[in-house]
Amino acid sequence: DIQMTQSPASLSASLGDRVTITCRASQSISTYLNWYQQKPGKAPKVLIYDASSLHSGVPSRFSGGGSGTDFTLTISSLQPEDFATYYCQQSYKTPYAFGQGTNLEIK
Amino acid sequence: QLQLQESGPGLVKPSETLSLTCSVSGGTISSPTHYWNWIRQAPGKGLEWIGSIYYRGATNYNPSLKSRVTMSLDTSKNQFSLRLTSMTAADTAVYYCATSTTMIFYYWGQGAPVTVSS
Q: In this predicted structure, what is the pLDDT of residue B18?
């Protein structure tokens, strides 16, 4: 099975900050990597798919990059609604694993 | 736009079987472009993909749960279902149904909390 490892597990940042979250796959997954945002008590929402494609309706301050085993999610200027938990997920092969999550908190 | 809604018991006894249903609106589960998935999240934990079912009934289960999982479609009701046998406290979680194309989970239900307790 492919293991997905995110770092950091938690992150404190201020409004307007630029933040980057990293996701590493245990083997190459090409660009079959997706990012989700989850707020407390809600279902996750897809932000980025195929490593760098912005899902419809997602603000352009979100961007994704990487290929192979190393990927990033960057938020260019944090807004109040961005404080949430972020998950990466590989869609390369079954079982379709998620990372353990990164909790983004207000500093 | 697709909408999904889970339904089922909130409480299951240890060793019993969990049955959940996901009702789909705004689209048909007979679509050849979508897969229908179950994903769960234990309290304070991350997301675990349980498995998926395709419109022709083909299934794909997470090996960690494969011996206990069955998924099925009911095209007459536009619903799909999950059965998970031999429930234990470790199966306590919020269970989500979600739809995907190429295993990108675009639409999710609101989640069904399930507690395993006697």
A: 98
- CA dist A37 and A26 (Å) reads 22
For B5-10, what is the mean pLDDT?
A: 96
Q: Kindly list the distances between the CA atom of residue B72 and the CA atoms of B16, B82, B84, B85, in Å, as whole numbers in the listed order.
A: 19, 7, 12, 14
User: Which residue reads 């940042």 in tokens?
Assistant: A13
The secondary structure of B45-71 as a DSSP string is --EEEEEEEETTS-EEE-TTTGGGEEE
Say if residue B96's pLDDT is above 90.
yes
CB pairs under 8 A between A and B: 47
**Cβ neighbours of B111 in A, within 8 Å:** 43
Identify the closest residue of chain A to B47 by CA–CA distance. Answer: A98
- Please compute Rg for chain B using Cα positions: 13
